[in-house]
Amino acid sequence: MLDKEFFTEYGEASQYEIQEIVGKGSYGVVAAAVDTHTGESVAIKKMNDVFEHVSDATRILREIKLLRLLRHPDIVKIKHIMLPPCRREFKDIYVVFELMESDLHQVIKANDDLTPEHYQFFLYQLLRALKYIHTANVFHRDLKPKNILANADCKLKICDFGLARASFNDTPSAVFWTDYVATRWYRAPELCGSFSSKYTPAIDIWSIGCIFAEMLTGKPLFPGKNVAHELDLITDLLGSPSAESIARIRNEKARRYLSSMKKKPPVPFSQRLPNADPLALRLLERLLAFDPRDRPSAEEALTDPYFRSLANLDDEPSTKPISKLEFDFERRKLTKDAVRELIYREILEYHPQMLQEYLNGIDRTRFMYPSGVDQYKQQFAHLEEHHGEGDISTPLRRHCTSVPRERVCSDIDEAFDENSDCTTAATAHISLWSPTSSQGMKETETAGKDVLTKQNGHSKSDCGPLKTSGIGASTCASMRGRNFEETISEQNGRVVS
């Protein structure tokens, strides 16, 4: 009965047996399921009526694209996306993820005996993931305990990239300020009232600091009821910001509010968290600096003495910045049909045979050739990305075809007759949208493989297994010495449980 209620008309649904519903929200429903072909436990996220609002559909497109491009053991992995029954009219999306047992919010809430080793290993994983994300020029923008999945073996994975953004040098700052950003309790002070004109990776560092403090105390550090209250709580702990910091705030109301605020001295972190490791408090103080310029990068934070027993550069990979061509859709206003086509294109990434047919342009009668302007945009983007590498040439060929070429249907019909076995699949699923340069895709895939190849080493921890309620540190099984390649193998082959 659960299967019938959960799935609509998706043919691949027969591959999965729904076990239970594990989460519900405005986005849809998440169910735990078993892949009947492999016996593997998975989580299936069903998103209903995603094209009712173009903004919601664009957020979903952004998330599934980022999770395809960001492959790291500390980031949740999409295993599969089900192929919709009808390319032009589908409404629901089913994304299959690796199954995790809980989230960090539940772990903190249910466990009162977490050890200093737990705190250290948790923060290490979060910063390691953030280093990778930031070197891709991506900001998560909504880090909080509920967006960090957890397993009983202490493994954490960052999820929910719906508010994330890829940053490019020529991106207008307005793009960053049009959306709701970060849950208030984990929101950096420069986001409270739009203090700054442009985001920096420091907004995610602040959120990580708030999460770390919540681990240490068992409760949120700055549970503000509104923006003004949030700033009051922040300054109660950190003290009044300096005149220099206030002067850099672009929002006039925020400047006046902070300038008129009663002067507050900073409270020593050791007074607020008397039982915490002094090294942990010293790092926490750096993460929660009021001025974003005073916060360390994720890479710098990983070199802090607090991680002396864990730090290993082989376990802390970085990656290449994401190509702006992947997010060209952010630069234009999308229609409902356009975003549906772009999401369908992303879904094809998990269906290699159909993707190849799409890239080969089998459905030539409806294939939309890029204009000369599109070709030049790709050429200039290539030159920008490879500037300084000694390669001034571009592999892109100029086809100034501003008007779609006419096609004779009879020629295509003959071609289909020669391949009658695959005609139905091709005509049912080939996209209308102009495909991305296949060379650009290969570069992206190659970059991803290079990163995964470089990820070897050891993930070390003295912490032990977690459980979703009442996690006991006394029964911890050591994870010290686990090979980083094994973690990637688990991510690609089976679920850690």
TrEMBL record:
It comes from the Eukaryota. PROSITE patterns: MAPK, PROTEIN_KINASE_ATP, PROTEIN_KINASE_DOM. It catalyses: L-seryl-[protein] + ATP = O-phospho-L-seryl-[protein] + ADP + H(+); L-threonyl-[protein] + ATP = O-phospho-L-threonyl-[protein] + ADP + H(+). One of its GO terms (molecular function) is ATP binding. InterPro entries: Kinase-like_dom_sf, MAP_kinase_CS, MAPK, Prot_kinase_dom, Protein_kinase_ATP_BS. ATP binds at K46. It is an enzyme of class 2 (transferase). Residues 16-307 form the Protein kinase domain. Belongs to the protein kinase superfamily. CMGC Ser/Thr protein kinase family. MAP kinase subfamily. This is mitogen-activated protein kinase. It comes from Actinidia chinensis var. chinensis. The lineage of its organism: Eukaryota, Viridiplantae, Streptophyta, Embryophyta, Tracheophyta.
